[in-house]
Amino acid sequence: MDDDFLNLLTSANQAQIPLVLGSYQNADDTVRTVARRARRLVSGYVWGRSAYHHDGTLLGPVGWLVGELAARQHEDGLYDVGSLHSPPDSAFAIQDICMLYALLDADGQAETAALRATLASVIKKAGPALAAGGVHTPNHRWEVSAALARTNQLFPDQRYAERIDDWLDEGIDASLDGIYSERSSTYAAEVTNPSLLTIARLRDKPALLEYVRRNLEATLYFLEPNGEVDTTASRRQDQKGLREVWWYLTQYRELALHTGDGRFTTVAKSIEARGTGELGDFLAEVLERPELSAGLPAVQSVPTDFVQHYPSQASVRIRRGAQTATVFGGTDFHNIPVISSGLSTNPTFFKLRSGAAILDSVRLSPQFFSTGHFRSDGLLLSGDALKLSSEVKVPYHLPLPKQYRRADGRYALSPDGRFYASMDFDHRPKQYRSLRTEIRITEVASGYDLEFDFAGDKTSYAIELCFRPGGTLSGVEPLDGDYLLASGTGVYTVGADRIEFGSGNGAARVAMDPGERYTYLNGSLTPDGLRVYLTGRTPGQQVLRLRTS
Questions:
Q1: pLDDT tens digits, residue range 73-95?
Q2: DSSP string covering 478-511, please?
Q3: Is the pTM of this model over 0.90?
Q4: Residue 545 in contact with residue 447, Cβ under 8 Å?
Q5: Domain boundaries, the chain
Q6: What is the pLDDT of residues 521-542, one digit of tens each?
Q7: Are strands 482-484 and 530-548 parallel, antiparallel or unpaired?
Q8: β-pairing verdict for 477-479 and 472-474
Q9: InterPro entries this protein is in (predicted)?
């Protein structure tokens, strides 16, 4: 038994409990938050090592929270969580509710008999709805299936097993390189991996473990030295945010124990040593499954010197010790040219870190008919270089051929590529203006060269470098709250770590144009941070040199 691990979770849970007690009667909390608050209290109540073990003062708050779980449940067994009468969102809560019931039932205190009866009623009411209901996203299938597996374990029903098998029969949406279809660390860590592990255990589906193992192995190469996980290629909301590895703690522990892979041990131990995140939430899992607290295999070095290609999302991760880089060319924009949830539309094509000096994004935007940022149409490995490219063609529409003309002038409402109009664009001959952009990325001593090659019409462009807040910029000019590198080399410094960039190629600011799809809705793609702009004119070439130290 790993006592250090258990003590860490115990302390983390004990720190959570006063926070729950101070805010649990919050009418604005979703049912998922209510269930998680109850799980935190119950974990401490049933755990013999906790300072809150069988502390009767917890029973009133737990009773209030359990009452809310019952009161908010619709007659059909489902909850509203953003979406109305939502099977998948209800499944998130039901997983916690099943854990609440199981922990209290195993503890067997007479004082919690009424709580257990209420929880059992909620679970039994939800089960048929989850077994008959639908989903919205790929990960919802596995969340619902995991909730059904837990429900079936407590209150068996053939309908639950059959619906799990129906979802599983669709196949797990994972590529051979370990990436789930949503390409999201958030949903891999919080939903898909934990759900597949639960289904594998409770429904005797050991083949599911291999999907989790592959995803955790891939994640080794997306880890940053500070515990963040690269999310550039995600199709979900984390494509424009940060994710931390602590969410993966019990997954890495379980797969380390299952496979003997000491690299997984190393990641788990690094999470424990870092101590960040809501680690107390994992206590319930370990109380439910004490085998997760077993001593882990010996540590093995995780990858720290590599070039790793992920064809399923057209990305490459490069690491040289404390220096990491991401090259990304796999947006969905060229196949589905819209901005929508569930699509990868992130215009960041390069990231670079050197210790605490973090360049969170490099983006490019030409002034070209408001078509927006450069988004590469794939990624090509060419010798020692990585190539990104895209060609944008914007039409001018000529008169309709006579066979498509209408005397009443009422033509089909159709897309031009940037906007819609009653012009029957599909049948019109066209004249095009075009701009082709190629970016060649080469690793060099202490950094990277990004060579831009523009061909086509004459226009302006801006390259945007967005650095993580917390550092100092030098060699640049302040401009409207941002910075311009007109000439020479700029430097971003955090302590002893620095990233040099340059050289500048113009004296005037060129606005970053997110494209008409954004500006029409008053949207913005401006990243948070210290933004530095380099400008230029097409056609022609420019080299952006990035050096670290």
A1: 999 999 999 899 999 999 999 99
A2: EETTEEE--SSEEEEEETTEEEEEE----SS---
A3: yes
A4: yes
A5: 13-136, 347-400+427-548
A6: 888 888 999 999 999 999 999 9
A7: parallel
A8: unpaired
A9: Chondroitin_lyas
